[in-house]
Queue: 3 jobs
Job 1
Amino acid sequence: MRSLHASELLPPGFSAVVALSDGNSTIVTIRATSANSPCPSCGVVSGRIHSRYPRRVADLPIAGRRVVLMLHSRRFRSDTVRCARRIFTERFDDSILKPWARRTARLDQIVACLALTPGGRPAARFARRLSMPVSNDTLLRAVCRRGGPSFAPPVIIGIDDWAWRRNHRYGTLICDLKRRKTIALLPDRERATAEAWLTNQPQIAVVARDRGRQSAPA
């Protein structure tokens, strides 16, 4: 057996400076281990530091506590004369931490899985119990960013309403009834919106729909 260093619990490429706990969450101050970073515009690596600023990033929980990473992020000067970006913020691999992301990639992957399985409010409640608090709107955005896998065009579909905000705003949900999967979320439940979507799906042979008055007709 060997001793475990705190940095081994962090995403690759970072080292821990100090860790504090307030009882409900653990705040870990971190910094990148690399001495330089490539410019996102010209790709030339620079090691000339211009300035630093704090960046707050959520990560996987530890021992039942929420984890917040306080990253001392650096700004570098571009060494390319013709580069349009004179100063740039250091970049990391997208599989670790994306630009402007508020969560590490490994936490974001779990958030996306929660959104696709329980979905919406049940997933948000479950995430809070796992010490990974996210809102149901965040879960929906995670699904939209990742998109969906390619699939065979549906032949038998179901159309029904779904609520963006109950009693205020509704959309149209379209399911592939053969695969029992949701394949489209339309922004409203107007007839024209559903017809426009169906126009691009000429292979559809059967449409099942809710008989409610407000439902988008097939």
Job 2
Amino acid sequence: MLSRSKEELLLLVTAVAGLALAAVAVRELGPTDLRQSLAAAAALGVAGASAFAYGLGRVVARAAAAAEDDDDLAAARELLSAIPDGIVVVQDGRVVSVNRRLCDLLGFARSELLTQAQPFPFWPPEHRHELEEWHATLARRSELEGELTLCRRDGERVHVVVAARRVPGANTSPRHVLTVRDVSSSRRRERRLAELCGRDPQTGLLDHTEFELALGGAVRRSIAYREPLAVVLGELSVGGHGGADVFGRPEALVAVERLRELARADDVLARTRDGELAWVLPDTDAHRAVGAVARARAALASLPGVALTVGICDLETAGSDALALCAYADRALVEARGQGVGGTAQYAAVAAA
């Protein structure tokens, strides 16, 4: 509401006083009193001029205030557009404002986002329950932060950090201002670093620690879906020699690549010890694991001097125990070594002997 200046108050008082004087003059006016008539007319003129000046001043003041508000609004929009983070303002479950950076980040035009109600078009369907819960928590609090997954207009998923704060309104319902920062590249780097940390530097296969984690997950899935599972422990040798230095030989590294190409999508290949490889075969019993080993040897047949000695055990034989599964496959590998380079042994055959 516009406040009145001193000049406006003076004009208002003058107008009121002129009207009062005109009223008094009219009350005392006689039929032939010319001076009283002139006085009344002058008072009315002063009152009218003052009232007109006051009204005109108010109109000009309102216009100036509106122009100033428009300038402030334009300046605020320019400021929001310059902020490197995306910004979205939500009121009563609807988008009421977005900045340019958010549109660039998500690939939507501003007109496509304004007035949109939940679920917003940048919510991935598979994460909708998480986003609804996050916004419900925000509605109960004055501020909230978290990591969320949003969806670009082209369907690409974007990992973001969102910080939100409630902004109370004088005559309106509260608004929530959300700043959105893209952290997808950071997450990709973290996943890549985690992957590299769990890899053997010579072969690129999983190391022993990651192998144990992967085997544990494979065993749990096998038990849950009542599917068979087998583990093959193999000792790679080149020219009859294995051990710690074998993966320093180019033939051994080529052999690893061929085994990697042979493995199925759900299979797990790892380097567990010096010169030793582990192969986890989901949905495979011991008999089918023998067939997989035969295919592996066929893939390595063209590499001169390369041999693979293996021990095999399946989950049924190990009693659904991941540690026993590895231990029994290792016992079978010891038996296979006794057969000579390139031997194969199953734990069941060892146990029956």
Job 3
Amino acid sequence: MGWPAQRLQIFGVHFHVGVKHGERVLAISNGLAGYIPHLLALSASSPFWEKRDTGLASSRSKVFEALPTAGLPESLKDWAAFERFMTTLISAGALSTIREVWWDIRPHPDFGTIELRMCDGLPTLREVTALAALSQSLVTWMDQRAEAGEDLHPPSDWVLRQNKWRAARYGIEAELIVDEEGTTRPLPDTVRDLVDSVRPIAARLGCGEELEGVLTILDEGPSYLRQRRLVESGGDLRAVVAQLVDDMADTR
């Protein structure tokens, strides 16, 4: 990979959610794509890079996108299309394994899961469990809708690309595009609607309490905001690191 790989002093959190029916994996993945910006914004925790404030909520996501198979997932119709994708790139020497497909969402045949890979590093256990609950509930919701015959097509590529950029740039302060006419809504409003939609599923899965932690993230602010507030109050980047260490040590 050369220079792009040499920059990868970055850290993220991945969530694996088991899927019973392999034939629905791509449909579920397509439906999940529209929520990449939501999960990215809620987890955003990398405003600083090489001693300076980048102006981004998530610099990690932009650094990682420099790799050739990183970033937004390809919209593939079915498993056969995914196999064609893999066969082509393996034959061409671009890949040797599924582990070299670094999409924000990818199927993982070895584990029987859908892997959500868009999140920044989450410094607190409360944030990890909140987004784990949201991820698990989202996958189950998409699976149920696919089973019912709903077409879970992702947003248009240009809408999804713009929304991911807005989440990386502005975090939970982003205005997301919600239709093909360019209508926008504050990202927190769309997250609250999403939590309302999956709350019954989370209750059945036994992670309802953890899901409510998503609303706490909105109220208290994700890590990128907490880091900036510390610097704005007079702290330096050493103080930011110390605060992140304390956050990680808190297992409540």
